[in-house]
Specification:
heterodimer, A: 355 residues, alpha/beta, D-Maltodextrin-Binding Protein, domain 2, 45% helix, globular, B: MetI-like fold
Amino acid sequence: MKKITRITGAVLAAATAVSLCVPATGCAKQEIIGELTVINYGEYLDPEMLDLFTAETGIKVNYEEAVTAEEMYTKYSSGAISYDLVCSTDYMMQKLINDGELQQIPWDQFEYRDNIGDKYFDFCTAFDPDNQYCLPYFWGTLGILYDTTKVNGPIDSWDVLFNGEYAGEIIMQNSMRDTFMVALKYLGYSINTDDPDELREAQQLLIAQKPDVQAYLVDEARDEVVAGNAAMAVVYSGEAYLGHEYNNNLEYVVPSEGSNVWIDCWGITKNCEHPEYAAAFLDFLCREDVAMANFEYIYYSTPNEAVIASLDEEDRSNEALVPSDSATENCEVCVQASDETTALLNELWMELRSE
Amino acid sequence: MNESEGRSSSRRTWLSGPYILWIAVFTILPLIVIFKYSLTDNAGSFTLDNISAVFSPINMKAIWFSFKIAFGCTFFCILLSYPMVLAMKHLGLGKKSFSLFIIILPMWMNFILRILAWQMILSNNGLLNLLLTSLGFEPVRIANTSAAIMIGVVYDYLPYMLLPIYMAIMEINEDLIEAAKDLGASGFTVFRKVILPLSVPGLLSGTVMVFVPSMTSFVVSDILGGGKLQLIGNIIEQDFTAGNNWHMGSGLSVALMIFILISMPFTAKHEDQGHESVIW
């Protein structure tokens, strides 16, 4: 009996495989014409899309992953593997561009570039002024995730973190830049300021706020709000969306003073010998069906307007998933600070932490 | 020295080879690297700034807080260990092994998981407050305070105090206690005059094993302190990870090592007087 079940199972599996294969590619054995070596964040691309790309184009993809932008940079710069394509976050792309590690993307070979909204290319000009090197992939905002049952009315300003109304109910980010960003934006300064006075003013604000802060956390920030241990937390939109899945009373808002937008981009490295293969891969990622598959795999905000247009109404009105233009109006991309500013920030952050 | 003795001693030296290699690669070498980092700046030139940075107000504050946590942790561990060991002393062999097993059991589970469990227990909506409110008491706000950190370190390091004291007390000759009782000593006098002095070696090795790690820990304060309270371990960790300042982190580590080394001879001297301790 057992044996028969197993055989039936195998047959069924094979049948499914064939039936899946036919509509996609016709199962014609595509000859491998070349290879691409890609490095990306973990779980940041639907693996089935890699097979589909190889089946369609005959270009084999060697796919590597890294956990953080820093790890990616270490892997990249060690030179043990020669990567053709990298996907990383704004400030790391800036570093790669400044180090001369990227080559211009041949946009003329693209068929689906127009699927990516202009707004996202505009974000990229903060570190890639002429949009030569970076293709936006996913993006998001920093905002406040709050429990509607624990606050008096809707929130639309950073003020709630600083006015003492929610003392002991606030979770801040345990990360230097993210925490200073909040204070700088509240004071009306740029998150990329290198004016020591503005930074010190932000620090004084954060020191005054510290007694009201329940904890400074990173990964657990969202969970504390989900669990009801705190009324609100400063989190990134991707996290906020997942929080909403667990607890329906949670809302996410990008305060009207503005905030940080982060954007992850693809770039072609200077070592890439076949930019036309790399361009084919990037173009493939812009195609609506592929971008949709990746969106459904990751659930971060996508810059692909074709995908956004085909979302259902509930998802499209979710600020954590599709931040509106008005929400991002006052937002800025965080760029790498100068060495002096970084040193000052470190010092101010340490002082804040030891208060 | 005759020939066979010489040969056997050289064979013994050879047997320690793997351990010496281990120490060389994983202790001596990293120490050299840390010393090198601590005595140089970003440009690679010699400096003492990284070590003297320990006297900055921020670092002194963190060291003082670390010292208070380590001292409190050691104190509470001693306070909890003695009654427990004395209670275990007269149990039968089976029950004794079982109690030891219970004490060691939590150590089979990952340390971070155990601290995360404490976070769940102590959080505002956690088990402790659930229990308190269901019994009609006011909920307490203990999460993210130094009290939470203290609970975490005491919980974590208690076995390291309990086991050496247990070993030391189990070694005490029962005749000594009988004799003291025969001569009219009360239970407390027996403890004060016989058990306590004879358990000093265990107490001291327990103190070293609890005080030093609780002074340098950073995970407990990160998780249970909510990032609001800084031990010196947190500052060093920050220097290495977020601040990307390995020189400063190494300098502070070296300063901390010196601090601990200075306090060591005190314990070492006392250890010579008693029995050699079992674990340390």
